[in-house]
Amino acid sequence: xxxxxxxxxxxxxxxxxxxxxxxxxxxxxxxxxxxxxxxxxxxxxxxxxxxxxxxxxxxxxxxxxxxxxxxxxxxxxxxxxxxxxxxxxxxxxxxxxxxxxxxxxxxxxxxxxxxxxxxxxxxxxxxxxxxxxxxxxxxxxxxxxxxxxxxxxxxxxxxxxxxxxxxxxxxxxxxxxxxxxxxxxxxxxxxxxxxxxxxxxxxxxxxxxxxxxxxxxxxxxxxxxxxxxxxxxxxxxxxxxxxxxxxxxxxxxxxxxxxxxxxxxxxxxxxxxxxxxxxxxxxxxxxxxxxxxxxxxxxxxxxxxxxxxxxxxxxxxxxxxxxxxxxxxxxxxxxxxxxxxxxxxxxxxxxxxxxxxxxxxxxxxxxxxxxxxxxxxxxxxxxxxxxxxxxxxxxxxxxxxxxxxxxxxxxxxxxxxxxxxxxxxxxxxxxxxxxxx
Length: 437
Prior knowledge:
This protein has 437 residues and is mainly alpha-helical.
């Protein structure tokens, strides 16, 4: 009875998260509180067990990298990097897509997808409408490039931070295990867009000339004082992460210390501080870890591991590949962070021949593929859609041009994302099979 009740709370919580992009952390915290109360009353899950289920190192990583990313964003570096890249595209649709995808990938290596999309999408919209190019395919490409960039490093996205804590992995592990295959998948994505778009690069959409007058891509200057601080903090942080393994230090606490320095130097206002330190994300993942801990306390995750072993008949390589595909499917609906927290215990049970970390890469690649399939799975998908809608509302002169192009909808995104998920999973399956052989 308790198991059914816990599962019901879990499902209701994530239905609420799925239906409401904003305030997801409130729903997760409420779900976590309900599960602790149920566990306490039944004697199956005490508050102490709930506290022990939290990956505090992951929270430290989120805090530290959010603070550093916020400082970089406040300095104007990201915005000017994106604007300069867009200006060099010379108004050609093909080069706008390629160059903005590459700069999005680069920013996402060190910054979460929310910060990346918040910076690149407004620049993309301005450049595309100025040149009469439909911005929707470019934005979709940027969202997927952000997923790929985030998956390439330990500090690029929240799922990798969770896997780093669960698997006791280091910064260098992700560089060697994830970045090469993600660069291959990025190339596959660009080829896919090029072949599908065809003559899109030469097809213009009508833009009101009145809007073009005085419209600038760059809307702010770089704060050189902040940028100097950013470069120094980031360089020291990366050096610390690179040498964390040999020095027997955990990456999360290195990032936490760097984040404290970034917050102190950034002089964020009261209304900026909570966002700068990733407060919403910290609350969401703290609640999520407590909820997953309740499932684990009732043996549900152990049951899932047993089922996985039975289905794959003790073939670890096949088990890792199945885990990757199942993780991709779940991520479409609940997002990468939730999938990582749920499936990390399963990945920890896999001991593969060849690369002993291949199971972690299989899970990370599955989450990345699922994140690319739909806006609900993409970390910053809802943000990008809101930015697109808000941009059109702020510039009603562009309504006709937007109507003449492709509409940014969930269905349109999936028209690109679902085939790419299939391509990513096929290539990732080959990669994992080779690593585990």
